[in-house]
Design goal:
The chain has helices at residues 17-50, 57-102, 105-111, 113-155, 157-178, 181-209, 216-251, 253-269, 275-292, 294-316, 377-383, 407-413, 428-433, 441-450, 454-458, 477-491, 507-521, 556-562, 565-578; strands at residues 337-345, 352-361, 366-370, 392-397, 400-401, 414-417, 495-499, 525-529, 541-546, 549-554. The protein is α/β, with parallel strands linked by helices. The strands form 2 sheets. The chain has a 6-stranded mixed sheet, with helices on both faces. Strands 2-1-4-5 form a 4-stranded antiparallel sheet, with helices on one face. The structure holds adenosine-5'-triphosphate. GO terms for molecular function: ATP binding.
Length: 602
């Protein structure tokens, strides 16, 4: 866990705080020059009234210089805060990426790629807005009134107090509008999230739902969420609007100006205020209210930034997978895989997904994991690449505990082909080269040929250079899988963990896939998560799992003869294969026998 994780909107700026302070100092200085320009303007008018026609060049020039300086300082302050925000964005994204590289894959899967991308992209962007825009405004909102007040007190304390009284009134109204704000903001975001969830559900479910009805159910939920969001917004607006508007009206320069005008005129009439002081107070005093106006929008920015920071913190707080110190790391010795009394729970107080599992996969053999749905097959496969660390026992790759091995060494020894095949946004060739960036084009093509992928890749618009992944070319599930198989073939790692795909699009694809797999498996230590039993008849050993425990272990024929869970699963499978739609039609041809993996054409 990253203890340095910033928790407050201001603490999050720590990495760039020097530049932010500089930006704020520039903004404050700009405000000072703005006020000095106004004071000088008052002086100019005073001089002109006293001696009409005698132009006071020096103060006039002073007004010009101060106005230009105020403008330049303000521009520069925004420049600095934006540069700082850009730097902060980069720093935060790098920290997040570095942290995620050390977090277990299981944890990343739990949070979800979409949510992570949103944090790295949108939430960090949200902070940019906060840092870039709010910091100079903050400096202005605090420095402006403070300096004005000092100037007013120096000019005339009675008028100064009157201006402060008006502002205080504005603040009271504002705080009334802000009453219960935290709770309202929380409810606002909850309502918004309900709308987002309903939108996602509505859009995602559309293909399924519309084949059954017109989507009225999900649409109804979506509309209900929208209505309650609207209802809440109206309620909030009504609640806050009267005092909010009153506050805005009072903090507007006009009321301050009116009070100073009236009080100044009255004092002048009683001859206790001279005209030029009155003029200076009028000019400077109105600026005080104006400087405070941005405070309202700042609250909004801070609220949004806080939510983003909370989400960033949540990601940064995900536990990192312990890494072995380089000097204590061991390298795998061979292509064997051993589970020694392995137990694993997803939740500390939950049930064991894998319990006391021991087996040895000798180099060059095929070990199949079978069992009913939820038996723990996928979990066992995912303990090998350390999606999670075991709760008890050890997983040994090449004789070394995976936790005592450098991640590079583990990845160099084992390749994985999982069901959720991922193609990243790059060319097909780059996708195949993943993990072997120096592989030649010939090697890539040879791997694709072995994976039965060459022909369809060649037929794509730009062949191997066609872009895959998000917004890339559309590929069928089977085609994507064959690309990942080509990737694993090219990697040529001695141990292969294969989570067999369940959904092959069509028999032709299935045949190609089986051929590709047979190529991939040749000569390797294979751990095969078999969802369809036909693939495992020839396995060297079959591990039958039941509720996380090893129920049976053996070869196909022995297990059938044993007549236990495997035999039951197998008979169920055979019956399913012989199942027909019509009693008169002969039993359907079983899927092209993937059982004979080794016999398939290469
Ligand atoms: N990420 C997870 N978090 C919590 N529990 C999980 C998670 N993944 C799986 N489980 C639970 O662990 C148990 C084993 O699941 P696993 O996916 O390993 O079974 P499986 O044999 O591969 O099932 P299937 O054949 O249906 O894919 C199940 O009870 C499942 O609900």
């Amino acid at each position: 866990m990253d203890r340095q994780t910033p928790k407050s909107p201001w603490a999050v700026m720590r990495p760039v705080q020097g530049q932010i302070r500089f930006a704020m100092a520039l903004a404050a200085l700009g405000t000072v020059f703005g006020l000095v320009a106004l004071a000088m303007l008052a002086w100019v008018i005073h001089r002109l009234i006293e001696a009409p026609g005698d132009w006071p060049w020096t103060p006039m020039f002073g007004v010009l210089v101060c106005t230009v300086l105020a403008y330049l300082l303000r521009i520069n302050s925004f420049d600095q805060s934006h540069y700082a925000a850009f730097r902060l964005e980069q720093i935060l994204r790098t920290r997040l990426a570095e942290h995620l590289a050390r977090v277990s894959l299981g944890e990343i899967q739990r949070i979800g790629a979409g949510a992570l991308a949103k944090v790295i992209q949108d939430d960090v962007k949200e902070l940019h807005v906060f840092v870039a825009d709010s910091t100079p405004l903050h400096a202005r909102a605090y420095a402006g009134p403070a300096i004005t007040l000092i100037a007013l007190l120096w000019l005339d304390w009675r008028l100064a107090l009157a201006a402060v009284a008006v502002l205080a009134l504005g603040f009271v109204a504002m705080s009334l509008a802000m009453r219960d704000r935290a709770e309202l903001v929380r409810r606002y975001h909850a309502a918004r999230e309900r709308v987002s969830a309903a939108v996602v559900e509505f859009v995602q479910a559309m293909p399924v739902v519309r084949t059954f009805d017109t989507g009225t159910d999900t649409f109804g939920r979506f509309q209900h969420a929208l209505e309650s969001y609207l209802g809440f917004l109206t309620h909030w607006y009504r609640e806050a609007s009267l005092s909010g508007r009153l506050g805005m009206a009072v903090l507007n320069p006009m009321p301050t100006l009116a009070v100073l005008l009236w009080l100044g005129a009255w004092l002048g009439w009683r001859e206790s205020l001279d005209f030029s002081t009155w003029l200076a107070v009028l000019l400077i005093g109105t600026g005080m209210a104006e400087a405070m106006m941005p405070l309202m929008s700042l609250y909004h920015l801070i609220d949004k930034a806080k939510l983003s920071i909370a989400r960033i913190d949540e990601v940064m707080d995900t536990p990192e997978l312990p890494q072995v110190a380089p000097e204590k790391a061991h390298r795998p010795q061979d292509a064997s895989l051993v589970f020694e009394g392995v137990g694993f729970r997803y939740d500390a107080d939950g049930e064991e997904a894998v319990a006391d599992l021991s087996f040895t996969a000798a180099p060059g053999t095929v070990t199949a994991l079978v069992g009913p749905s939820g038996a723990g097959k996928t979990t066992v496969a995912r303990l090998i690449p350390r999606f999670w660390d075991v709760t008890t026992g050890r997983v040994l790759v090449g004789g070394v505990d995976v936790r005592e091995m450098r991640a590079d060494d583990l990845m160099g020894q084992v390749s994985f082909v999982f069901q959720d095949t991922f193609l990243f946004a790059g060319s097909i060739a780059e996708n195949i080269r993943l993990g072997v960036p120096d592989a030649s084009q010939e090697a890539v093509e040879a791997a694709a040929r072995a994976a039965q992928a060459h022909a369809f890749i060649e037929a794509l618009p730009q062949g191997y250079e066609t872009r895959a992944g998000e917004r890339g070319i559309f590929l069928s599930g089977g085609q994507r899988q064959r690309i990942t198989i080509a990737r694993a073939i090219l990697q040529e790692r001695p141990i292969l963990v294969l989570d067999e795909a369940t959904a092959f699009a069509d028999p032709e694809n299935e045949l190609a896939l089986v051929a590709a797999l047979s190529q991939l498996m040749r000569g390797k230590t294979v751990i095969l998560v078999a969802h369809r039993l036909s693939t495992i008849r020839d396995a060297d050993q079959i591990l039958v799992l039941d509720r996380g425990r090893l129920a049976e272990l053996g070869r196909h024929d022995d297990l059938i003869a044993h007549g236990g869970l495997y035999a039951r699963l197998w008979h169920g499978y055979e019956q399913a294969q012989a199942w027909t739609l019509h009693p008169d039609t002969p039993p359907s041809t079983p899927a092209p026998s993937p059982a004979r993996l080794a016999e398939m054409p290469s």
